[in-house]
Batch of 3 targets.
Target 1
Amino acid sequence: MAVFRHPERHKVAVLVRHGMLVMELGIVHRLFGQAKSGDGERLYEVVTCTPEPGDIRTDSDFTIPVAQGPEAVAEADTVIVPASSLEYEPTGRQLTPQLKHAMSLVCPDSRIASICTGAYVLAAMGLLDGRRATTHWRSACEFQLEYPRVRLDPDVLYTEDGNVFTSAGVASGIDLCLHMIRRDFGATVANEVARGTVVSPHREGGQAQFIRRPVPEPRSSSTSAARAWALEHLDQAITLRDLAVRESMSTRTFTRRFRDEVGMSALQWLTQQRVERARQLLEESELPVDRVAAACGFGTAASLRQHLQAALGVSPSAYRTTFRRPA
C-alpha cells in the first residue's frame, strides 16, 4: 500500500532517528506544509518516517511515535535527513544496518537533503563524495578528517550540488527548505511561505554561517528606517549619505551602526537587495532585462548581468529560463 496519498503533490519524506532534533522536524513540516498554489492547493505532501517504526527518542524530554518505516523513502521525490544527537554523530560511529537499508532505498532521481549534522549520514553513504557540502561549523574539522573526499565548505549556510543539498544548522535548514520550495515552485510561493512563517524570504547559500562580533549595545536609534526606505526606492540612485540622512546620523556613525546591526556594509546590503529584487522580477514578470535592471537600480542590462553573474553565476536570461514558472 502506498505511503503517500496525494500523487499530484511533491512527496517529501523526513527520515528521523533516535535523538532527532524536534525543531528540525518541525521546520520541514511547517515550511513545506504551507506551500500552496495560486488556487490554494497544497503543493507538497510531507511524511515522517524512520528505519524502524515506533517511538523515537528526541533531544528533548519526550518521544514521538512514528508509524511509517523506510518504505516512504522509496516513494519520495525529496528525502530530508535531519540531525541526531544520539545516532552516528559525533564522528567515529557506523550507520546502523537499519539506517543503511533506509538510505539505500532513495531513488537515483530523488533529491536528498540534510540539515545540520545529518550530512554525516549522506557522507557515510558516499553520497557526498566529490561534491560540495556543508555541515555545522562546530563539526567541520572532524567531518573533513573523516570524509576527505567531500568538498566541505564550512562557511556557508547551505549547498546544492546536483540533486544533493546540505545545510549548516537548524536556522539554515529554514533557508534550505525555502530554497528548495523556490526551485520547485518559484519565488511567489516561497515568499508566501516565508511570510507565513515570519522569516526572511531568502538568504544566499553562500552567506557566512555566523559572524564573530559582539551583540551591539542597545541604542535609541537604529538603521531600520533607512533600510525600509531603501527597499521602497531601489530603482533610484542611493548613496551612503542618503541613507545616513534618513536616520539623522553622520555617514561615519551610520556606517558603524549599520555594520553592527546587519553584519555587512550598507552598500553590500544594498547590492544584495537589488539582486533579490531582480530575481523576483525575472521570475514573476515579463519585463525585458533592461527594464528589470532599471527597476532594481542597476541602470543597465550590462550592470545587472555583471551583478547577477557575480552573485549567482548565471546571466539574467539563464536565470529566467531556469526559474520562471508558467502562469
Target 2
Amino acid sequence: MEVLTRAEWHQLRDEHIARMRRFTGPHQERKLRKEKHPVMDFLFTYYSHRPVRLERWHPGPGVVLEDAAEYLEFPHYKATADGVTLDVESFFAQREKTLEFVRALLTATLSRPARLGCFGLHEWAMVYRQQPEEVRHNAWPLRLGSDGTDQVVEASRIQCGHFDAFRFFTQPARPRNTLQPTREDQVANEQPGCLHANMDLFKWAYKLEPATPSDLVADCFELAADVRELDMQASPYDLAKLGYQPVRIESAEGRSEYARRQAEFAERARPLRDRLVFVCQSILTVTSLR
C-alpha cells in the first residue's frame, strides 16, 4: 500500500480540480447564461457524470490517505490503521457485473485493428431526411443544406458499428447502414478506430469510480473532448462561428484528414484502454484470492 500524507494528497486533489475546471468552469458559465454549445455540452449531457463529480479526486486502489476522514462520507472507502483507503470488497460486491463487462468489452476492442473507413457519417445519418425543426442542433445550419446533406448520405457507404451512435440514426438512414448493431453484440462489434468507442472510455472510467484513479478519468475525459471536436467538425453542421473549421468528409481531402486523425486517436486511446482493463483485472483478481 502506498501511503500519502495529507499535504501530498491535497496537492494531487488540487491539481486535478484545476485540470478539470478548464472544462467544468466554462460549462457552468454557459449553463447560467442558458447558452447551448453543440460540441462541449455532449460531454456533460450525453455522459451522465456531473461536473462536481468530475472535479472530485480519487486515488484509486492500493493507496492510503492520511488524515482523510472526509473520504469516509463517500461510498466504498474504509478506515485503516494508517488512514483511509478504497474498500475493494465493498466495491466488488456492488460492481462485479460492471467490472466484468468493461473488462470484456475493452479487452475485445484492444484485440482488433482499427477500422478507419466510416468518415464520421453517423452524424449525417442522424439528420438524414429530417425537417429543419427536427434536427438535433437546429440552432446551427447544415453546411450543405438539407438536400445536400441527404445527397452525401445517399452517395456514401455507411458502416457504423457503434450501437449508441446507430440508435440515433433517423428511420430512413438505418437500412443504409451496412451493419445493424445491437446492445447484445456490442462486445463483438466495437473496434478501436471508432470515435464513439474512444469517447466512451470516459464513460467506463467514471462508471468504475472510485476505483478508477482520477488522473485516468481526466485522461479519458480530455481524450473524449478532443475526439468530440473532430466528431462535430466532420458533421454536417456549420460551426465556423464557434471557431470549428469543417473537416469536409464529402471530399477526398476531408476523408483523408478524418482517417488520419481517427488513427491518431486510436493510438492515444490504446494505453487508456489498457489502464482501464488493469483496474478491472486488479480488483477482480484481488477479490478472487480472498
Target 3
Amino acid sequence: MQAYELLLHSTFMLRALAVDDEKPSLEELLYLLNADPRIGSAEGASDATEALRRINRALESGPDGPDAIDVVFLDIHMAGLDGLDLARLLTGFARPPLVVFVTAHEGFAVQAFDLKAVDYVLKPVRRERLAEAIRRAAQLRDAAPPIPVHEPDPDQIPVELGGVTRFVTVDDITHVEAQGDYARLHTSQGSHLVRIPLSTLEERWRARGFVRIHRRHLVALRHVGELRLDAGTVSVLVGSVELQVSRRHARELRDLLMRRTTG
C-alpha cells in the first residue's frame, strides 16, 4: 500500500534503464522493475556502450521527451566499459539520470557513493530491497528543481573503438558517409562507425556548418578546400578526398561557400 500512496503523490512515474551484460540478470531486473508501480517504463541494455548511446538519445529528447530516462540501474562488472566507468562519464553531463548500482560485489560501495549513486543493491536482488532503491530515486527525482531542456555536449560524439568508448571532437570531422542505419565519421586521423542515421546528423549539425552534398554524404564547410566544376559535374575536395556533389545540392553548396568566404 505504501508504494501506491507514493505513486499517487509523485508527479510522474520513473523511466528506467537497466544495464547488465548477463541476460538472465537483466531479464530478472527488468521483471522486478516493471512490477513496481512507480516505474512507468523500463528498458534494458546489455553493455555500458549501448547504455551510453541510449542515454545520449535521452538527453537529446529532453526531460519531457519520449526517450527520457530518469534512473539507470547499473551493474558494475561488465566487459569493455564497466559500470563505474559509465557512472564517471555521466557525472560530466549537465543533467545526468540518477544511478542505482545493482551488483554481486560488495567492495565498490565507497566508489559508487563517491559518484553520487542513489543506492547500492546487492545481487541476488530482493524485491523489497529494490523497492527501497526505487523509492529513493523517486523521492530525489520529485524533489529536483525544473531544469531547462538542453542538448548533450555539442562538441563531442561518443564512438566505440575496440570495446572502448572514445569521444571524437565534432570540429575534427571532415565529412560523414551514410552506411545504411549507420554513419561513418571521417577525420584526418581515421574514421569511426556510429549507429546514427545520416539524416539525424544532418539536422543535429546543420548549425555547426555541416551540409548535405549527396544522399550519401555530409561535409563540414570548414574543411572544404576546393569546389570543382568539370563538364557539368560538381565535386568538392575535403582534405585529400574528392566527393561528388549531386545536382540538387550544388546550388545551395555554392551559396554557402560564397557566404562563408565573403561573410
